[in-house]
Amino acid sequence: MVRVPGDRSPEPEFAYKNDEMNQAMVDALKATDPAAQEAAWGKALDLVAADMPALPIASAKTPAAAAAYVKGLIPRHAPGGLPGGLARQVGP
Question: Are 91 and 80 in contact (CB under 8 A)?
Fold first, then answer.
């Protein structure tokens, strides 16, 4: 698919559309009663889950590399690493 400059439509792989789910979200946002909000959000989540083609069962770890002189680097996915893709260095 060739995109036309200025085209602001979603990429095809992100062009999910479910009118019933959209209405459930609108209903949840308009509701003033917490129970009605919870019911509408629950319906929206159920509809998304029903449309989901697959559930991921594994996640690849982000590779990390550093020069030999860098010591004490803890990649974010290792125990003691920081969330959000950050790494930290321990010691001098």
Answer: no
CA distance 88 to 29: 40
- Evaluate whether 47 touches 16 at the Cβ level (below 8 Å): no
- H or E segment at 74? strand 73-74
**Structure token pair of residue 57:** 């069962």
pLDDT digits (tens, 9 = 90+) for 30-80: 999 999 999 999 999 999 888 877 655 665 556 666 777 777 666 655 555
Query: 31 with 37: CB under 8 angstroms?
Result: yes
CA nearest to 50, candidates 11, 15, 20, 29: 20
Closest CA relative to residue 28, chosen from 14, 38, 20, 16: 38
Model confidence, pTM: 0.47
